[in-house]
């Protein structure tokens, strides 16, 4: 008897490209039990409950390709696995992670599905999936379900585990506009953009080009003010003071009104503006001094607060602040009026995504109110306008309005402090006029500025600040990528990997290699075990001293972990064979193996190449999937696949009359004699020749010079499981030689 | 005896290249008291450990007044030393200098020399750069790289303008903030190092004591327990094993952050490898504070004995720090079964702390030369992997003579902004040149961080020469920083206004991140007040001294005395640079003898003996030949026609010809391309925009008006010569005079003008520089009284009113010289008047 329950049997996070899609997904094996016999249209009230609990499901265009498509399917009848997919995506979406890819597929066992949902963060995707299951069960069984509460929990989780909005916008811009890959390095906002030696790291709006020293300078407001003044950036006159008495003396000296602020505070903490009396100055000094870093008194500049974002010497966005007012009704207290008139604004919220913060009566507001003769619980007469915040959130986009000389002053300020990315706080009546004439000035320079105000301004147009930062880090079409060569299939993968790595090293590139017999960094052996797993490939891509990476992937890696790289320059498929079937993953048919291994070709870049074994018909079939060019290889030049490919002008590598030749269209270029290739000499290893041809093709595709190909191929020796490197290993790494693998394991694999 | 004025001369000055405190001492009967003050102030600083050696006492013209000059290495220390010396000499301070007053509080009190030295020593320690930064600064100075402290702390700027770099202790301006953040996260650092194939101890971060115990069992005990994010060894427990110890270690570590790293304890000792750029430059073995038992002394006695080592101090300033028997030490002792009062056996090693930080009494032994190249290579890769250009790599291994892989050693941490003390002055072994290594990463070989710097001084023509040079340099593609008597200019922006010919303005230019070429007007006042704003210049230009200006001020009474002041720029020309000197002005020409570098002479007359001799001797000269400016270097000549130089009015304005000669010579000396020099001379116009107040010519309803800022007899004489060359019917001059000049100079100006002009309009304005109302006009009138030509003298109050009055009376064909004082206001007013439409005929 089947149970009336949705059983999630297994969760597999696929961290990289998989047979499903490119971005990370969770593959869930789900047993829907007796619901296999009860599609949605047969569950009374289910449609109504589900669609009212999650009205935004209307946006899902599934099945019919139109808005409301999924709901239509739901009404007409679909199975629970499919519903689970959509609800999981929707819950992630409601938690702030927009929906992406989803799929539900039957397996060979009746009622058991593979439900696949995109999950940028497994830590969020997993609870979303379970929450979706609970929600569906509640909707089926007509039980109440606290949708709002559960979504709120997920949203909190998302805030915790996902990248912050500033970082996310940079990563997003890199990925979508520049196709630069990203690797998150910790559970915070530290992200690596690009791979290997081409990578650049960011941490929110700080980059690896951001000077730590400059950040220190920016934190010291008095030093910053002095440096800016020295180079002629307009700044308010000011001075550091040691006590309230001195604060008042200085205030009178530089002229009232004044601003009092802590030396290294930020985000406006402890900042008091427009102080005019001795009492105000003394009170402000007390609070600012409590921040602990010393106190500055400076001239108050009349005008609006602005935030100018400088990236790589250019102004990329500017926002203006806005004062917050309430209007008295003769009945409500100011506190109440704020709640009613200001904080009801939907743009105001506490979350990272809200463009405006809720207005609260802080010490600065209290002083502002006192200036107008009010307190927080005063009831202003009807019609009286009461100023609460002189400068609220700076969130009105004014990028277009900035006067060129103001932009130049802001850029000079960033340069003077030494920051590549800086948020310049500037006070001016009119940002479209030069500062000097209006007495405006730069009041602060901030390292690691928030980007949200430019991404989601309360008014005006969002600015592509993420793109600006990516362009700053990767100028001039720099892709951030190192050449990655991916290899899959069962015919000589590790041998090809070693050969390709050897060729790239000969070409002067520091090359990392992860394959079935170990992990190597530019010739140095790090591990001697099967390193076709995700972690090993990932390790190479993290390594900023590598100019190139060669990564072998087993079918199991693709099925259970995903590829370590999002895209690669060269993708090599040696064969598609039944031996790669994974029955425990319900991959049993050759077509399913094909679907798995094709991932290697799916990820080839448009300017890259897929290198396919012409002797394997299924490998050849993948040619149609390649974004980049296709190069076929085979010992036999007469294979029909090669013929057709050459006829279309394609490239191939094969043998002819004992020679290895590079062929394109009608021309053939000789690389070398087969007799000259040491590896092939007397070798009875299967696929040795195919491996040499595949590696030659890869070298050709990488643009290596013919001479280098020839020398590299001719002089190559068996590596990895073969003897030559063992001697060096003994000196190098006695710890690992203890676990030197037996060649037989490897032999079996190659022979298989 | 009274100290009436104390000045710190912060750059090369009248007395020395070194920084000095200059004190004016009055009320002396003879020189001996001043000498006593001088030697006392110097000796006090020396006893406090300051590296100073220069001092002198110089008389003034006034009876009983001497100038006492004493070198300082830290300004505050120098000032205090003078104050203390004054107290020792029973001087009376009139309280003219804030900050020193308190040291004079009770002159009756006997002078306590040891206390004074201690006070100075303490102040010096607080003020001077710490040993790490100090070592880097010394290395920079050895390479001729200029430096400037930006704060009282360790933030230092090297180099000038766009070549500038900054450091803060062992952190440089390119040290990446993100890399520092990575280094702070020990778990992430390990992940990245592991990815880069660097041996690291196995381990994980955990958030509970139970998890810590599990990890420990998995990786094997003993383990190291430390905060995931932390530094300076805070909360670190080394070599713990057993559930209880690990729990306690976890609790201690978690006080420094919720995440705690548990990792395998690697066998061996602690080493610190310093990586700078792509090189390991130093390595030290670090031993925790420990004592070795002698079988008789208690732990406390052994510690006390060790602390008698004079190298052990209390802070970061000394090679070793005293060992403290604090709670941590007591706990560590207890763990070994000791207390401060137990007597360890002979030869027993008693460790007083787990970590080997110098600041807690550990010691460092230099092992730089022993490090195996493979091991050094791993340290460099570790630094590069994290992204740090200056990096302290912590290694645990049995010996540094073998690769890490051969001995189960590993890198346990990398540190940004590492301490350099253990490498500069290790407790044992040789110090390493790490300051040099850091400077070498900041500046390539042969790069001294300098930009071309032309200093211009002289009596007249400074501003025009400076502006002309800046114009040439701009045409050569430079971002020019320029100071002169009307502002500080960077590229096309004026960033400061007013008289900016002093050292503060010079420093503004040299601090500006965009400037790659500096032309600095360097006036007398600033040199006297504070010394030069730079340590040396590439080109020093002295236009002329004539009969001098500002005489009588600042104890400068004669032209020779003035020359000694202006000569300071010539004395401080870089060895590879040049002085550009006016051969026709004997006092200027004589400065050649004070120039440590080559000299270019200029003069209108090629026959001028000094110039001709220099030329004959193979020296470089610039002169006028047949209506053209010619630069000669042996047989090589560069020529430009006077007709092509509008500034000179086709050669008719003699003083502008001299300015053009000076600028041509200086541009040449600074290495500007000839195309830029020529283009500059061709295109430079002395209009109010490019050279305000420098012979600005206007045409006003058929009359010629010339506005000029000249205000000394030489300038007036030059103007008279230039104006004489211009045709005119009636000649009118509008004049005031700067009140701070000597009576005789003011009268002399009037005499000169009175011989060349028909009519005079006198004015006085608000700014009389200390004179009473009417005083200046009276002096001028007395001068005009002796003049031969002038017939008509009138007087108006207010500069603008004077201009209006003059314009009102002008007829076509008249010439009017207006000697303006408030340059900007006067020129703006003139421009406004010029723009007015002609009044309709009545």
Helices and strands, with pairings:
The complex is a heterodimer of chains A (752) and B (842).
Chain A: E1 7-14, E2 25-31, H1 46-53, H2 69-76, H3 80-94, E3 102-106, E4 112-118, H4 122-140, H5 147-161, H6 165-178, E5 182-184, E6 190-193, E7 200-203, E8 206-207, H7 212-219, H8 221-230, E9 238-241, H9 244-254, E10 258-262, E11 272-275, H10 278-290, E12 295-299, E13 304-311, E14 314-321, E15 324-327, H11 334-342, H12 363-371, E16 385-389, E17 394-397, H13 404-417, E18 421-428, H14 435-438, E19 441-447, H15 452-455, H16 465-473, E20 484-488, H17 493-506, E21 511-515, E22 518-521, E23 524-527, H18 534-542, E24 548-552, H19 555-560, E25 568-573, H20 590-597, H21 599-602, E26 604-613, H22 617-621, E27 629-634, H23 640-647, E28 651-656, E29 659-664, E30 667-673, H24 688-701, H25 706-715, H26 724-732, H27 734-737, H28 743-751
Parallel strand pairs in A: 20-24, 20-25, 21-24, 25-26, 26-27, 27-28
Antiparallel strand pairs in A: 1-2, 2-4, 3-4, 5-6, 6-7, 7-8, 9-12, 10-11, 10-12, 13-14, 13-18, 14-17, 15-16, 18-19, 21-22, 22-23, 28-29, 29-30
Chain B: E1 2-9, E2 20-26, H1 31-47, E3 55-59, E4 66-71, H2 75-88, H3 113-127, H4 131-142, E5 147-149, E6 155-158, E7 165-168, E8 171-172, H5 177-184, H6 186-195, E9 203-206, H7 209-219, E10 223-227, E11 237-240, H8 243-254, E12 260-264, E13 269-276, E14 279-287, E15 290-292, H9 299-307, E16 312-313, E17 320-321, H10 327-335, E18 349-351, E19 363-366, H11 373-386, E20 390-397, E21 410-416, H12 421-424, H13 434-442, E22 453-457, H14 462-475, E23 480-484, E24 487-490, E25 493-496, H15 503-511, E26 517-521, H16 524-530, E27 537-542, H17 559-566, H18 568-571, E28 573-582, H19 586-589, E29 598-603, H20 609-616, E30 620-625, E31 628-633, E32 636-641, H21 654-669, H22 674-683, E33 696-700, E34 703-708, H23 713-724, E35 731-735, H24 743-754, E36 759-764, H25 775-785, E37 792-797, H26 799-809, E38 815-819, H27 823-835
Parallel strand pairs in B: 16-17, 22-26, 22-27, 23-26, 27-28, 28-29, 29-30, 34-38, 35-36, 35-38, 36-37
Antiparallel strand pairs in B: 1-2, 2-4, 3-4, 5-6, 6-7, 7-8, 9-12, 10-11, 10-12, 13-14, 13-20, 14-19, 15-18, 20-21, 23-24, 24-25, 30-31, 31-32, 33-34
Helix pairs in contact in B: 1-2, 2-3, 4-13, 7-8, 14-21, 14-22, 21-22, 23-24, 24-25, 26-27
């Amino acid at each position: 008897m089947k149970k009336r329950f949705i059983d999630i049997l297994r969760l597999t996070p696929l961290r990289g490209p998989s047979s499903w899609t490119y971005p990370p997904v969770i593959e869930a094996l789900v047993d829907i039990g007796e619901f296999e016999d009860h599609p949605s249209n047969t569950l009374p009230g289910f449609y109504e409950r589900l669609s009212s609990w999650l009205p935004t499901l209307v946006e899902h265009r599934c099945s019919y390709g139109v808005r409301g498509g999924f709901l239509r399917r739901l009404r007409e009848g679909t199975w629970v696995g499919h519903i689970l997919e959509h609800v999981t995506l929707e819950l992630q979406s409601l938690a702030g992670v927009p929906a992406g890819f989803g799929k539900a597929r039957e397996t060979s066992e009746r009622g058991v599905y593979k439900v696949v949902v995109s999950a940028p963060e497994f830590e969020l995707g997993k609870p979303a999936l379970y929450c979706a299951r609970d929600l569906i069960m509640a909707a089926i069984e007509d039980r109440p379900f606290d949708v709002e509460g559960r979504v709120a929990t997920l949203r909190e989780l998302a805030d915790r585990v996902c990248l912050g909005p500033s970082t996310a916008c940079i990563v997003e811009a890199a990925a979508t506009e520049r196709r630069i890959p990203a690797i998150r390095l910790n559970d915070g906002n530290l992200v690596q953009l690009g791979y290997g030696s081409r990578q650049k790291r960011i941490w929110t709006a700080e980059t690896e080009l951001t000077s730590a020293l400059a950040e220190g300078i920016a934190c010291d407001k008095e030093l910053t003010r002095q440096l800016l003044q020295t180079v002629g950036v307009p700044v308010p006159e000011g001075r550091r003071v040691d006590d309230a008495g001195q604060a008042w003396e200085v205030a009178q000296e530089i002229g009232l009104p004044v601003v009092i602020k802590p030396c290294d505070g930020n985000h406006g903490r402890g900042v008091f503006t427009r102080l005019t009396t001795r009492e105000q100055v003394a009170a402000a000094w007390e609070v600012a001094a409590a921040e602990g870093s010393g106190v500055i008194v400076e001239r108050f500049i009349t005008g609006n607060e602005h935030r100018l974002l400088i990236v790589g010497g250019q102004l990329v966005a500017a926002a203006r602040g806005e004062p917050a007012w309430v209007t008295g009704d003769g009945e409500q207290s100011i506190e109440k009026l704020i709640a009613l008139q200001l904080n009801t604004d939907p743009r105001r919220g506490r979350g990272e995504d809200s463009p405006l913060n809720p207005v609260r009566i802080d010490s600065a507001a209290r002083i502002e109110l006192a200036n107008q003769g009010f307190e927080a619980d005063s009831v202003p007469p009807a019609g009286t306008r009461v100023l609460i915040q002189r400068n609220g959130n700076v969130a009105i986009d004014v990028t277009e309005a900035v006067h060129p000389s103001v932009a130049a002053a802001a850029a000079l300020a960033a340069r003077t402090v030494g920051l590549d990315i800086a948020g310049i706080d500037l006070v001016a009546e009119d940002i479209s006029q030069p500062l000097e004439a209006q007495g405006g000035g730069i009041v602060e320079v901030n390292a690691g500025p928030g980007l949200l105000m430019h991404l989601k301004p309360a008014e005006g147009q969002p600015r592509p600040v993420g793109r600006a930062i990516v362009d700053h880090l990767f100028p001039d079409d720099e892709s951030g990528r190192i050449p990655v060569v991916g290899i899959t299939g069962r015919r000589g993968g590790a041998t090809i990997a070693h050969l390709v790595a050897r060729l790239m090293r000969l070409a002067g590139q520091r090359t990392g290699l992860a394959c079935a017999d170990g992990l190597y960094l530019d010739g140095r052996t790090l591990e001697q075990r099967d390193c076709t797993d995700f972690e090993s490939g990932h390790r190479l891509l993290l390594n900023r001293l590598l100019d190139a990476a060669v990564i072998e992937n087993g079918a199991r890696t693709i099925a259970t972990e995903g590829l370590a790289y999002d895209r690669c320059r060269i993708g090599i498929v040696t064969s598609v064979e039944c031996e790669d079937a994974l029955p425990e993953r319900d991959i049993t048919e050759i077509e399913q193996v094909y679907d798995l291994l094709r991932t290697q070709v799916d990820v080839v870049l448009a300017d890259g190449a897929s290198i396919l074994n012409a002797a394997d018909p299924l490998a050849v079939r993948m040619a149609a999937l390649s974004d980049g060019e296709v190069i076929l290889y085979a010992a036999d030049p007469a294979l029909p696949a090669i013929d057709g490919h050459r006829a279309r002008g394609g490239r191939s590598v094969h043998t002819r009359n004992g020679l290895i030749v590079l062929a394109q269209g009608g021309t053939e270029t000789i690389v070398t004699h087969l007799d000259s290739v040491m590896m092939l000499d007397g070798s009875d290893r299967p696929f040795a020749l195919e491996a040499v041809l595949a590696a030659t093709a890869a070298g050709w595709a990488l643009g290596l010079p013919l001479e280098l190909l020839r020398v590299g191929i001719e002089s190559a020796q068996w590596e990895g499981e073969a003897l030559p490197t063992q001697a060096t290993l003994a000196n190098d790494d006695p710890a690992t030689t203890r676990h030197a693998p037996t060649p037989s394991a490897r032999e079996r694999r190659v022979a298989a | 005896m009274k100290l009436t004025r104390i000045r710190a001369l912060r750059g090369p000055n009248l007395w020395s290249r070194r920084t000095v405190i200059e004190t004016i001492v009055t009320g002396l009967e003879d020189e001996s008291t001043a000498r006593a003050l001088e030697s006392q102030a110097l000796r006090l600083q020396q006893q406090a450990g300051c590296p100073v050696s220069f001092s002198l006492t110089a008389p003034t013209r006034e009876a009983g007044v001497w100038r006492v000059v004493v070198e300082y290495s830290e300004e505050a220390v120098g000032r205090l030393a003078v104050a203390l010396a004054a107290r020792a000499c029973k001087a009376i301070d009139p309280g003219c200098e804030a900050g020193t007053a308190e040291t004079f509080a009770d002159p009756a009190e006997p002078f306590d020399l040891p206390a004074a030295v201690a006070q100075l020593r303490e102040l010096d320690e607080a003020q001077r750069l710490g040993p790490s930064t100090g070592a880097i600064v010394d290395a920079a100075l050895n390479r001729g790289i200029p430096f400037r402290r930006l704060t009282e702390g360790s933030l230092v700027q090297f180099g000038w303008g766009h070549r500038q770099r900054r450091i803060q202790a062992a952190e440089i301006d390119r040290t990446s903030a993100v890399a520092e953040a990575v280094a702070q996260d020990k778990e992430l650092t390990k992940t990245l190092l592991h990815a880069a194939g660097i041996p690291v101890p196995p381990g994980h971060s955990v958030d509970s004591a139970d998890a810590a115990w599990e990890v420990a069992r998995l990786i094997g005990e003993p383990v190291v327990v430390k905060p995931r994010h932390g530094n300076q060894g805070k909360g670190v427990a080394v070599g713990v094993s057993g559930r209880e110890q690990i729990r306690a270690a976890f609790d201690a570590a978690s006080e420094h952050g919720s995440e705690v790293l548990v990792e395998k304890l690697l066998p061996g000792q602690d080493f610190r490898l310093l990586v700078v750029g792509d090189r390991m430059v130093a390595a030290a073995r670090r031993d925790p504070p420990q004592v070795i038992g002698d079988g008789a002394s208690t732990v406390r006695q052994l510690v006390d004995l060790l602390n008698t080592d004079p190298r052990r101090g209390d802070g970061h300033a000394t090679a070793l720090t005293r060992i403290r028997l604090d709670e941590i030490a007591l706990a560590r002792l207890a763990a070994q079964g000791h207390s401060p009062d137990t007597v360890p056996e002979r030869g027993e090693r008693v460790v007083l702390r787990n970590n080997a930080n110098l600041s807690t009494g550990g010691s460092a032994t230099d092992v730089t030369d022993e490090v195996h190249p493979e091991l050094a290579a791993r340290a460099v890769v570790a630094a590069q992997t994290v992204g740090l250009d200056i990096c302290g790599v912590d290694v645990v291994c049995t010996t540094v003579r073998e690769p890490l892989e051969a001995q189960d050693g590993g890198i346990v941490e990398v540190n940004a902004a590492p301490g350099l003390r253990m490498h500069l002055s290790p407790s044992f072994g040789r110090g390493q040149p790490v300051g040099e290594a850091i400077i070498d990463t900041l500046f390539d070989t042969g790069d001294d961080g300098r930009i071309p710097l032309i200093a211009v001084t002289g009596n007249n023509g400074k501003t025009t020469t400076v502006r002309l040079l800046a114009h040439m340099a701009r045409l050569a593609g430079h971002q020019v920083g320029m100071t002169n008597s009307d502002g500080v200019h960077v590229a096309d922006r004026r960033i400061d206004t007013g008289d900016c010919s002093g050292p503060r303005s010079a420093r503004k230019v040299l601090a500006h991140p965009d400037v790659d070429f500096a032309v600095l007007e360097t006036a007398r006042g600033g040199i006297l007040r504070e010394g030069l704003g730079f340590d040396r210049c590439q080109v020093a230009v002295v236009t002329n001294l004539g009969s001098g200006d500002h005489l009588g001020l600042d104890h400068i009474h004669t032209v020779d005395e003035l020359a000694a002041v202006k000569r300071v720029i010539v004395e401080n020309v870089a060895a590879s640079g040049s002085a550009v000197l006016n051969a026709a002005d004997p006092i200027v020409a004589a400065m050649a003898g004070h120039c440590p570098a080559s000299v270019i002479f200029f003069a209108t007359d090629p026959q001028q003996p000094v110039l001709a001799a220099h030329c004959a001797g193979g020296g470089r000269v610039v002169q006028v030949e047949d209506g053209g400016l010619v630069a000669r270097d042996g047989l090589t000549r560069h020529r430009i026609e006077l007709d092509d130089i509008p500034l000179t009015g086709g050669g008719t304005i003699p003083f502008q010809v001299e300015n053009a000669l000076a600028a041509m010579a200086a541009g040449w000396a600074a290495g500007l391309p000839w195309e830029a020099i020529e283009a500059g001379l061709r295109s430079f116009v002395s209009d109010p925009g490019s050279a305000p107040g420098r012979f600005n010519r206007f045409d006003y309803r058929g009359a010629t008006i010339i506005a000029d800022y000249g205000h000394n007899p030489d300038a007036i004489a030059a103007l008279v010569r230039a104006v004489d060359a211009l045709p005119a019917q009636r000649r009118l001059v509008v004049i005031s005079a700067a009140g701070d000049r000597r009576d005789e100079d003011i009268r002399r100006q009037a005499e000169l003008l009175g011989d060349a002009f028909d009519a005079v309009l006198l004015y006085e304005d608000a700014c009389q520089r200390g004179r009473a109302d009417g005083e200046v006009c009276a002096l001028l009138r007395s001068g005009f009284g002796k003049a031969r030509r002038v017939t008509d003298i009138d007087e108006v109050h207010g500069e603008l009113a004077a201009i209006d009055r003059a314009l009102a009376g002008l007829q076509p064909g008249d010439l009017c010289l207006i000697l303006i004082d408030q340059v900007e206001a006067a020129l703006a007013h003139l421009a406004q008047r010029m723009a007015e439409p002609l009044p309709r005929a009545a």
